[in-house]
Amino acid sequence: MKNLNRFQFIGNLTKDTELRYTAKSTPIAIFDIAVNGSYKDQETGEVKEYTDFFRIKVWGKAAENAAKFLGKGSQVFVEGSMRNTQYESNGQKVYGIDYIAENIQYLNIKSPASSSAVAGKKTD
Questions:
Q1: Count of domains in the chain?
Q2: Cα 72–Cα 75–Cα 81 angle in degrees, nearest 5
Q3: Does the keyword DNA-binding apply (predicted)?
Q4: How far apart are CA 2 and CA 14, in angstroms?
């Protein structure tokens, strides 16, 4: 049986891209995007709008490019896969999903407010 683990989003960055480096100096960029949608209310027939927010992670050279070119308001197409995450906080297990970008297309670039984009932070 085949499996599929893919996502595709077109959205706008809600803040500048954050660039970090792992202990082994691997770059990782993190950015949040807002994705707008709409639906028709079945009772009233009114079209209602909503916004979903996703935190995207990208690794390697693509991470450095994202930090260099993607600032708040940039529009991007992002495609990739999802990974389950789990950690403990205050004795409770916390579960989440990481959205790992494998393909990013810059649709409308707005440079980060500062070119460093929080560069140089080490992460575990």
A1: 1
A2: 105
A3: yes
A4: 35
